[in-house]
Structures are given as structure tokens and as C-alpha cells.
Amino acid sequence: MVEQLLKTGGVKLRGCGSATPSRSITNAELGLRVETSDEWIRSRTGIAARRVIGPDESLSELNGLAAERALAMAGWSADSLDLILLATSTPDDLFGSAPRLQARIGAVNAAAFDLTAACSGFLFAVVTAAQYLRTGAMRRILVVGADQLSSWVDWDDRRSCVLFGDAAGALVLEASDPDEDDLAGFLLRSDGRRGEVLQLPQGAEHSPLVGDASHQRGGFQTIQMNGQEVYKFAVREVPAILDSLLNTTATDAACLDWLLLHQANQRILDAVADRFSIPGEKVLSNLASYGNTSAATIPVMLDEAVRDGRIQPGHLIASSGFGAGLSWGAALLRWSGPA
Ligand code: UT7
Fold it and tell me: What's the pTM?
């Protein structure tokens, strides 16, 4: 029955959008805060600057802008959306920020909920959206990947603070005939046993409640990362999952137009591309300008490459997200653009 339902429809990628904070912080500026250098950060990561949300901005505002730009590209009105999925690990409201995004853009007919899978969140959300579209349960879905890790970075920890930035990216998807499916294949993985190498845990503070009972106070610590272990995880698992995806979809890596990986480190991008002999000009990267923006990296990069004309209708894109959880996934996507 499930198999039958899965085969009844396909999905089309119709529009994308993105929004980033106005303030860019260069490596040299970070060097005023921690002992680091532009040379070290560039050579180890490829990052030259990152954007950080300032006092007159908010992640909700960026989410709204990214969503409106994606809707405008598709030529859709917000009230035609059936669902909004907001992939984020940094909601403005722990009960969920997606309904606020729904209200902000006037998507009055859409259900809305958050999905948390750190840097894999956008990819996980796209695959989730595709299930509603393929079964025919819904026609139009907005997926937003957005994070404000600047709120949770220890800005005195040079081993992690140089990596991260804030951004929001959006993609709108539409149900289609099964033989016109833009999601040619996907694989999703998680391994919570290795989660401690990259985490943002709750604080462990307890306050007296009543009698001998206490309660744990809300609040989180700062990002805790073992960079070397995360690096090893990425360069091992991302090629492996992409290899499985190419095999299961009978796709030759030479047929790919673009490699669109989670933007974590240029060395990771290069290592994965090398594994499949994908030339550098097919590897999308905007790490230099934005650093690692978690759930936002893939849609922000997609939007940049669609708007500057690199990604054209019909192009085949291999994408992979990976990060905390641990979680990772891969998807083979075709860009259609507006109908
Ligand atoms: O979405 C996933 C998010 N996380 C990641 O993508 C992280 C993946 N990991 C990485 O990208 C890399 O491991 C890092 C960029 C974080 C670090 O690069 P590395 O080549 O693995 O450096 P390392 O941790 O081995 O450190 C080498 C040296 C150390 O000094 P000593 O012990 O050799 O004297 C560090 O203390 O570099 C030092 N170091 C720095 N120096 C200047 C670490 N961070 C910095 C810094 N500036 N920012």
C-alpha cells in the first residue's frame, strides 16, 4: 500500500529564495576577539567572512523574506500553500516558529511545523515535503532552512566560532505526475550514538520546586564540537551515502551538473568532489562569504546559483546535508523552476 502511494506522484522544484543579515564579519575582525588569523581560517576552512543577525534584524524576518522571494519566483500567492516546513535548530519559540512564518507571509491555508535535524534539516525537510506531495495529500509546500547559530556559538572558542553564520533559504515544491519527478532519489541516515561530537545541550541547572522535588531550568549551553571527529565523519559518510544514492538511481557521477553539499568546510567539499572525479567548476561553494549557516547553507547556495544563471532548468544536482545528530542524507534533484 505504501509502495503504491509513493508511486502515485512526483514533485517539482518551482522557486527558491534566500535572505542574509546585513552585517558581515571578516576573519580579520574575528581576530580582534580570539587568537586566530585570516590565513589560518581561509586555509583550513575556505571561509573569509560570515553574516551575523544584528539588533535591528531577526531570523523570523529573514525567513519571511526568503519565503516571499521563493513564492515570487514560482509566481504563487502565499494562500495557495498547503504546508510550511521550517527546518531550524534555533527557533524563536521552542513551541515552533513555523506558524509565525505562516502568519508573516499570509499563508492562511497552510499547516506549519518545525523540523529539527541541524545541518541536515533542509534536506530532511525536502524529503518530508516530497512524501506529502507524492501521495497527493498536498499540492504546494514551502520548505525553509534557517538558523541563527550566532546566538549559540561560544565566541571565545576559536576552534568553533570561526565556522558559523546566520541565514535563511527557501524552496517551494509542487505535486506533479510521477514521470516528471524532480526528486530522483534520496537516502537519510542518523546515528545518535556519535551525537556527542557536535551538540548544543540543555543546561543542567536545577531549582527547588516543592519539598524534595526540583525542576530543571530551561536554557541551553553553547555549541560543543570536536572538529576533527566531525571532519572525519563528513569525509567518510558523505561520499558513502552519495555513492549509494548514485548506485540505487543508476546515475553516473559524470552526468551530474552540480554538486551541492552542506557548506561546512571547503576541504570537505573538495574531498567529496575528488572521490567522484567531479571537477571544481561543478562544485557549488559560497563558504567564503557566509561560512556554515547550518540548515540554510543548501537553499542559500541553490538560490544564488539559480539567480546568477549557473543552475538552469533541467540540471541534475547531487546534494548532501550532514551534521549534528549525527545526521546525514543525500538527494538527487532536478531543478525545474517556474511552470
Ligand atoms: O556542520 C558541521 C559543522 N562542523 C564542521 O564542519 C567541523 C568540521 N571540522 C573542521 O572543519 C576542522 O576540523 C576545523 C576547521 C574545525 C579545524 O581544522 P583542523 O585542521 O582539524 O585543526 P585542528 O583542530 O587539528 O587544530 C590545529 C591547530 C591546533 O593548534 P595546535 O594544537 O596544533 O598547536 C588548534 O589549537 O590549530 C589551532 N586552531 C586555530 N588556530 C588559529 C584551532 N582553531 C584555530 C583558529 N585559529 N580559529
Answer: 0.96
